[in-house]
Amino acid sequence: MKSIILPAGKKVYFASDNHLGAPSSTESLPREKFFISWLDTIREDAAAIFLLGDLFDFWFEYKTVVPKGFTRTLGKLAELTDKGIPIYYFVGNHDLWMNGYFESELNIPVFHSPQQFEIGAKSFFIGHGDGLGPGDKGYKRMKKLFTNPIAKWFFRWLHPDIGVKIASYFSIKNKLISGDEDILFLGEENEWLVQYCKRKLTEKHSDYFVFGHRHLPLEIDLGEEATYINLGDWISYFTYGVFDGKQLKLESFKD
Q: Mean pLDDT in the chain?
């Protein structure tokens, strides 16, 4: 379990699902600037920042090429890590194909599966949330295809202009990598991430289970002094999690 010491007066922040680039670079630019304003706001008291995936609506790393754009965001993340604020990134279903760029250029560790952290005196189970729990078999099959080394090898042989254009089309228009159900509350018994957390709770206790992906700000008591938190998004809600050493709560960023 990874540990983070939380000094007095410092906080840990969590955010997810910006989908920068959707539905177009021009239309997502105001949201990108708004997110950067939030990063500037929290920088003075942030002991650490967790980004739980889908920062971009599409991201694929070729050997020597990354998608064009997002200069403001990438520059701000580099500025924060250069200042000594650790940032932890969990890949989402729209940015599955990270392969070293964040680590080498931004000094940001990238996780491809949920991880356990001890922050202060509390235990956290953290991940993006896609493909976990019961059901969603269609997406799980698709994820296996998208992460298959042979499929990625063939995709890399496409010229980046062609590959990014095709993948962005499917990501934005057809929602093959996501789904319309992400924006609807299914009821606690049908929320597959809630069911997943309850099962994990029987294996090992965590005070907080923190995920993104659902695009809904949710806080659900799991019993046994454990809480499930979904961070919402930076498209409709502009919500984030903040942990002050005692309690993790959801807040909304206002201009």
A: 87
